[in-house]
Amino acid sequence: MNLFLIRHGETTWNKEGRIQGTSDIELSEAGIEQARRLALSLKGSDIGAIHASPLKRAYKTAEIINSFHGGTIEVHPELMEMDQGDFEGLSFKELMAREKEFLHRWVADPASVRMPSGESLADLQTRAWQPIEKIITGGQNALVVAHNFTIAAILCRLRKISLSEFRTTCVDTASKTLISFREGEAHIEWINDRSHLNAPDL
Question: Which domains does the chain have, with CATH numbers?
Answer without folding.
Answer: 2-36+43-52+76-198 (3.40.50.1240)
